[in-house]
Protein 1
Amino acid sequence: MNNTPESLTETRGGPDAGRMRIRRVGRVHGSVRVPGDKSISHRSLILGGLASGQTVVTGFLPSDDCLRTLSAFSSLGVQISQTDPSSVHLDSPGFTGLAEPDSILDFGNSGTASRLMCGVLAGSSFFTVMTGDDSLRKRPMKRVVEPLSSMGAKIDGAGAGSRLPLAIRGNPLKGIYFFNAHKSAQVKSSILLAGLNAEGPTTVEEPVQTRDHTERLLPLFGGKVTRENLRTTVHPSRLTGTRLHVPGDFSSAAFFLALGLLTPSSSLTLEDVGLNPTRTGLLRVLDAMKARTLRVIPSNPLTGESEPCGNIHVGFSELEGIDVPPEWIPNIIDEIPILAACAACARGTTTIRGASELRVKESDRIRGIALALQVLGVPCEEFPDGLSIKGLGPEPRLKGGTVDSLNDHRIAMAMAVLGSRLPEGESLIIRGTDFVSTSFPGFTELFNQVVEC
Ligand code: S3P
């Protein structure tokens, strides 16, 4: 495909942590596979690190976030090698054979790694200290520290144990019943992972179904899990290594779905995308917005245990604004920045409420989206728990300029997609784009591969 000059250019590093420049895209077509699922990649390493023997993970996401989990398990004494960036081989002595690390575990930007590893380390027989980057050190940790403490964990840290750095003195744990009021899969998974090595069963109940990768993957490693409606119970289990394949990340595919939907005369296929129903809520939202060109072709049966995946085909579609039902939010929690980009190009207003969790993600995403949309000339109202976006229609008269991603990968990629709809001659500079590699290494290259100017 003729890609010169490229629509999306990127400078990496430097005082502003990288920049992207995007200008109008003429056409979008092709067939691509986005990198592996971030949530499943973290969990594959964690379960493989806790399991005795060998685990082989293919389709692994070699992003900055997942490599933090990988290096944490190396520090805990697990032998890990990568035959290529997306194939990982772990050889572990199992949970009871893990060793006290020599130094502090640094989880960088990764909320998932830090929260899930709290649950793992709470029941260990040694001492660990964990920290993270400027963003992660501001994010709430009490949501895992409190329930883990009620299981017997000994955890202290900044802000009276509510933020990183955290010091964890491994201690024997006992199973609990826990209600997951934050509707957080990270919190649920942290408690379930702690429950693997606790005395007696551990039950987590949730008000709505959050992503269920931990529950689906555990049985592959011999973990004992029972599920009954919105209650998940783990029983103390000794895990054994296995082989598993990580499908493409639906949350990464979402940027390309939107690019295809918003660009006239597009035809794009996304291959081997994870279709776990707890992750694909955006398809339901887009359907309600009258996206008539999305075709999902599952490649394995949508059963409860394994991770379903398949291809998604997308073409241009005129969208209509909707009120997103608040109960849909947990299943689109990572897709709201790209949903905002779609809403900006829809006819009518899109309202997103019940999403206050967005304020404590990698950035305050409600603020970040509202500020960026203002620069682009999209009318937007900010609420404590969401946004209302007045769409400019399928040929939006957007304005060029400079937006700040707040060092948030998903805001950066969403603005790159929206910037591709700028009028001819305009361009958008996005600041803070080095963080795109926390979830989507190679985003710029893949973007330029499917677009024509
Ligand atoms: C994740 C759960 C979600 C999501 C995050 C990954 C996971 O966070 O936003 O990107 O892998 O469990 P919460 O569970 O805190 O909402």
Protein 2
Amino acid sequence: MASEIFSAKNLQTGYGRVQVLWGADLQVQRAQTVVLLGANGAGKTTLIKTIMGLIKPWQGEIVFEGADLTHARTDKRVRAGISYMSEIGCFPGLSIDENIRIGGQFTPAERLRERMDELYEVFPAIATRRKALASSLSGGQRKMVGIAKALAGDPKLLVMDEPSAGLSPLFVQEVIQVLGRFRNTGLSLLIAEQNIKFLELADHVVTLSGGRVGFSGTVEALHADDALRRAYFGVTG
Ligand code: ATP
């Protein structure tokens, strides 16, 4: 039976006096991949940052593994097992190794060494250039560093803000493939995206528009709805 690992209820927030999120509800079940689909400006980054404690909610509740983290600091959320990958994903001015170590900063040294070996096996292209600055890598490789960094702490839930940003379609496919591997190990994923290619990974889709959650259901159900199909897939057939 599915069990809930994460839930956000009635999240409301904004910038200054401008309200951006108008009561967003979202759940992630254990080992489930949820894709938060929304166009530019829908409020995806605001929602993800609120989930990570980088933006304070005006109202609402955030629960992870039964613990109320609504007002917890970001580092407490990370220690609890939620990892975050921003749109940029990694620190370009640091080396690959340094990036991954930062991602694993709350992991005991010995475990982190093992974890880094595991991650370098999954990402051979960056393994050969550990001391290189992330800024010297291609956009696709930088994204891989970001994923390795986000996974270094062995999170239970990985929250990602537009992993496709700035990537060519070929690299988008690579990112999807890599995430699929971790998804199959039981990692829970919450991926904010506007690229519908990511629906390949989705067990559940939530749409966000104007700071409000619209649809919440399976990819098939999203497809079956004429208006939603036109809005998100741009096809009428
Ligand atoms: P994108 O795909 O462009 O990143 P998004 O879905 O992530 O879009 P947000 O970045 O959360 O959307 O933006 C939602 C709304 O909040 C937009 O209208 C945006 O202009 C506004 N906004 C975002 N950041 C700020 C800020 N720092 N100050 C004021 N308004 C902001």
Protein 3
Amino acid sequence: MKNIGVLTSGGDAPGMNACVRAVVRYALEKDMRVYGIYRGYEGLIGGDIKPLERGSVSDIIQRGGTILKTARCKEFETLAGMKKAAYNMKVFGVDGLVVIGGDGSFKGAKELFDNFGVPSVGIPGTIDNDLAYTDYTLGFDTAVNTVLSAINNLRDTMTSHDLANIVEVMGRHCGDIALFAGLAGGAEIILIPEKKVDLEDICEKIRENRVKGKLSNIIVLAEGAGNAEEIQKTIEQETGIQIRTTRLGHIQRGGTPSMADRILGARLGVKAVDLLYEDHEKKVNKVVGIKNNKIVAEDYETALKATSKGHEDLYTIASILCK
Ligand code: ATP
């Protein structure tokens, strides 16, 4: 394949730009033509497609967000929307796509192939790390480091005032941000959707900590694991300890990408271009990811079916170390 398009879709994630840069420059090195598709599938439907050169991706490796912009596009979920997208690809002479996004974006890419035969390679770009076929998604490492930095700051104040703090982080179904940041930040309690914990057990733990002389507690809560206000109210009522809640929200999405995310972006981008380059029949329909530090490729279907990574080992370590 000689002419490819690259788009970012769904939530932005730090490292997307580093990945776009890698896709563009590596493809040009292979004498391919690369088109930037702006605002994800919305731009594909609207024909917001422009050729990219080496210089188009200068000075972006260190920037969070995505220079290609991103969007959530309902129209693309209809056959009529997808038909427009496939038609525009023909008009612009784009043979295949690199789709950088989360599971929704992957479902879209799969549907586009199943219905209109458009080949693509998906790159996991989402801070949540909620794609189980890959050890890490692009943006996760940076997001965890952002949360860690917030935990460090909060701990100074919490320790000085003998207060507890619920730090609410992103993760509706996957608690990886909470688990990794909680373990690395020495949180006393980590609440993730994958592990149901009784509120009474949390209160008991806080009471035990008080008996041990530990008056300040950091509770890292993944948003899908419970309601911060309710948890705060219950703990305050049951233990008499004062709690603050800090919702980190979109702060977790932005910021300069970490070394790990930049390198992951480069490796995944290069692999995606290789798969498209070698695809003479224009039939590639795969995602790339990282497993045991090796870059791997899987079918969309297999990747989307993969169930939670679990991280039992990390959860156990965190439970022991926070005693
Ligand atoms: P994040 O994990 O950051 O939320 P995401 O890629 O999962 O990223 P979504 O909003 O779920 O984000 O999906 C992005 C876009 O993919 C949607 O706006 C829509 O255009 C397309 N999409 C999602 N699901 C489908 C589907 N089943 N069929 C066709 N297109 C879809």
